[in-house]
Amino acid sequence: MPRTPAPARPDVFAALANPTRRDLLQALLERGPQPAQSLAALFEMARPSVSEHLRVLREAGLVEERRAGRQRIYRLEAEPLHEVADWLAPYERFWRARLAGLRDLLDSGAADVPAAPPAADS
Amino acid sequence: MTEARGADARTSIHVDELLGHPPAVVWRALTEPDLLARWLMPNDFAPVAGHEFTFRAVPLPDAGFDGVVRCRVLDVEPARLLRIRWRGGRLDTTVTWRLVPEGRGTRLLLDHEGFDPDDEIQRRALRGFGGGWRGHVVARLRELLDALAV
Predict the structure, then answer these.
(1) In what order do the strands lie in the sheet with B68-77?
(2) pLDDT tens, B34-81?
């Protein structure tokens, strides 16, 4: 079995950066849990390289491995995907930071003078 | 394969904040340009429907954002509601503030709506925003998630 050095920290993005690994996830999504053998057949790949990709996905928490007899069955783990795909999280952080600033401003009393807003009706 | 595409992609942000000040005070902080500048961004806002103004932010050239948020006041209901069109870079969104009296304070509800997850540049803009996303990965993920959500 060929061995490559394991990354220092499992990285979901790094795991997903590879098109073959994304295709593997897609296959697990569409077909449900699969043995490594079927996945290898599906992608016409050598077993060791499929195993290697599955190992990276497993370390990133994207697939779960289960032994059944002499087979290893792989299943998609969706949780990390939800985390990564929350593409609006940076905007949400932006607003939360600004609202903290608003709270500070209000607490400073800067907006306290209860002046009537200037009439701006049309 | 992409029939469910977009069905579940998040296109809006909702933030809910309870503030210990009455709506009239919160309203001033939202609508007086000097006060608004102190917690949000420098601006030439006026609480008048139809008024066009800008917010000035730090430009993010890599994200196609020149630092100018171009806005238009859509709705004004003093001490209750403020809705503005919010365009910056490739974003064309709507920001709505709602002020609801609660006890002696105000519940402030923010809706930032209209994000387009299909726009590659919007996704790239997030990198400048501090997200560090990799657009092509997110695009593929979205397809996966859409399918999962069915």
Answers:
(1) B12-19, B105-113, B91-102, B81-88, B68-77, B52-56
(2) 999 999 999 999 999 999 999 998 887 766 778 899 999 999 999 999
User: Is A120 within 8 Å of B32 when comparing Cβ atoms?
Assistant: no
Question: How many domains, in total, are found in chain A?
Answer: 1
pTM for the full model?
Answer: 0.58
Whether B106 and B99 have beta carbons less than 8 Å apart is answered as yes
In order of their start, the domains of chain B are 12-116 (3.30.530.20)
Rounded mean pLDDT for each run of 10 residues along chain A, 122 residues in total? 43 75 84 90 85 92 91 86 66 86 94 65 52
Which residues in chain B are closer than 8 Å to A90, comparing Cβ atoms?
126, 129-131, 133
Is the residue at A113 inside a domain? no
Q: Between A87, A95, A105, which is nearest B123 by CB?
A: A87
Instruction: Answer yes or no: are the C-beta atoms of B38 and A105 closer than 8 Å.
Output: yes
Say which CATH number the domain at A45 has: 1.10.10.10
Question: Which domain does A77 fall in, by range?
Answer: 1-108
Residue A9 resides in a domain: yes
* Residue B21 and residue A106 in contact, taking contact as beta carbons nearer than 8 Å: yes
CB crowding B123-137: b at 16 or more within 10 Å, else e: bbbbbbbebebbbeb
Contact A95 B134 (CB under 8 A): no
